Amino acid sequence: MLTVEAVETAYGLSQVLFGVSLRVDAGAVVTLLGRNGMGKTTTVRTIMGIVPPRAGRIHFDGRPIHGLPSYRVAQAGIGLVPEGRQVFPNLTVRENLVATAANRAAGADPWTIEKVLGLFPPLAARQGLLAGALSGGEQQMLAIGRALMTNPRLLILDEATEGLAPLVRTEIWRCLERLKAGGQSILLIDKNVAALTRIADTHYILEKGRIVWTGTSAELRRREDIQHRYLGV
Fold it and tell me: Which domains does the chain have, with CATH numbers?
């Protein structure tokens, strides 16, 4: 579904990505791992068209998307849950969901407000609250729900559970497991290797802007040396 081939990205004279390649197949959950500052968010921003690649190719559903503006990438069917959530603080929970509602692919069973609230029951009682008044965990649920309301073929989550309370993290992982069971393709960034290896099919590790290791969950669990070398603090 998504292929990133030999992508290089820079901010001015500072190059961040050096020949990054990865792929996400339909229905798969793929992770992008690495310590802070290794290029994970830049990879996401490049895929989404927020930062143009200096070299390389990005294809989604067989069509090139490198060079497209970010709104065209979103319209192609990629939904983003950005780092830091970035909900619309002066809109209510319900208004945040209405604002992004779209079913461009004319799916037979699209995401609706009711389905999102069913996925995240804590939001149901807060529909009329301003998003800025929600807790961090509730805002993350809303950010995921807002992305789902675009009915994406690929969902990207940047730091899915960062800074959240343990109970909320458990709720987010439960949600992602349900989405995977429903066939949702997901590209996921997070630091919880134990949780990621429970739900993901393939993992890519970034080190200083380069992919240094890729493998399955079973392989990553076995490779404690890899975890220590590239993911340990």
Answer: 1-77+155-163+186-233 (3.40.50.300)
Q: Which residues of the chain have pLDDT under 70?
A: 233
Q: What type of residue sits at position 220?
A: L
Cβ atoms of residues 164 and 172 within 8 Å: yes
| Residues present in the chain in total | 233
CA 176 – CA 200 distance, rounded (Å): 10
CA 180 to chain centre: 13
| Pairwise CA distance, residues 73 & 51, whole Å | 12
User: What is 49-70 written as a DSSP string?
Assistant: TSS--SEEEEEETTEE-TT--H
Residue 129 is classified by DSSP as S
Answering whether pTM is above 0.85, one says yes
Please state at what angle helix 166-181 crosses helix 136-148, rounded to 10 degrees: 10
Phi-psi region of 163 (alpha: psi -120 to 50; beta: other; left: phi over 0): left
Give me the pLDDT at residue 162, please.
Answer: 87
CA distance 210 to 103: 35
